[in-house]
Design goal:
about 280 residues; alpha+beta; Immunoglobulin-like
């Protein structure tokens, strides 16, 4: 649109310069003619002869009449050209407005499509990562807690990106464990069965397993989702949802099993070190 206005201003400037130049040339021509006529009759001794100037220069009167008619024709031609420029600018403006209207309609169609939301949440205690400290002779482990969630609505929007943040709240222990943000780029339309996930690598100081270390089977864990996603027209949507799932016994069993395994391996290492020290003596 800015380019169209710039072209229109340039055309108007050229037309104005042409009008000023034509007016200046005509003024100079008239001035020179009358100046030469005055000088010519100034040299004549018979001043009575100058009274016949109207009859002697009748052709000049016709010439000026013709010049006036030509000026009128030039004015009409310039007005026609200006009207043509204005008509072109109007057509270009209509084209731009039509493209903007189509873009607004496409944006409205995209906004009216169903938004993808979280449908189901699955929690899982994965196999912990074991590590061995040779200096201390003990084993340690880093439990991994997995969150998996699926999408409810099938999206018809192309090129969607998801940025999801998850926080787990354990009411019994009054602790909140925050997962790192995860970016998921959906270059195509997603299906309802598509699964996304987060992994939480725990440590023993703020163990997430403490949420499940309870004898009350009614204990529950709340998972908070904060998902931000956008479509191809750079419009953002936000979805917040909370899910509650109850503590399962198999989580406690897995926790107890891995704790016993780690303690057993640590005892074996300490025993082997003690015997090696005796034999070294």
């Amino acid at each position: 649109m800015g380019a169209f206005l710039k072209m229109s201003k340039e055309r108007n400037a050229i037309s104005s310069v042409f009008v000023y130049l034509l007016t200046f040339v005509m003024f100079c021509a008239v001035f020179l003619f009358w100046r030469q006529s005055y000088l010519y009759f100034e040299k004549q001794n018979d001043w009575g002869l100058s009274g016949t100037i109207g009859d002697s220069f009748g052709a000049i009167n016709a010439l000026f009449s013709g010049l006036a008619f030509v000026g009128l024709i030039c004015t009409l031609l310039m007005q026609k050209k200006e009207l043509g420029y204005q008509r072109e600018d109007l057509e270009e403006t209509r084209t731009v407005m039509a493209s903007q209207l189509e873009e607004m309609r496409s944006s409205k169609r995209l906004q009216s499509q169903p938004l993808i939301v979280v449908a189901r949440v699955d929690a899982e205690l994965a196999r912990p990562l074991l590590s061995y400290s040779q200096d201390k002779g003990i084993y340690t482990y880093l439990p991994t807690f997995k969150i998996r969630y699926s999408l409810l609505n099938k999206s018809h929007i192309q090129a969607i990106s998801l940025v999801s943040k998850i926080a787990i709240h354990c009411p019994g222990n009054k602790k909140i464990f925050k997962f790192d943000s995860k970016y998921t780029d959906c270059l195509c339309q997603n299906e309802e069965s598509e699964i996304f996930g987060h992994d939480y690598l725990d440590d023993k100081l703020s163990s997430l397993y403490q949420c499940f270390d309870s004898r009350n089977g009614n204990d529950y864990v709340v998972v908070y989702f904060n998902i931000v996603y956008k479509n191809i027209i750079e419009e953002y949507y936000r979805c917040r949802k909370a899910f509650i799932f109850y503590v399962e016994d198999n989580y406690k069993e897995k926790l107890s099993y891995w704790q016993r395994e780690v303690e057993r391996m640590s005892r074996q290492v300490k025993t082997a070190k003690r015997f090696n020290g005796i034999f070294d003596r």
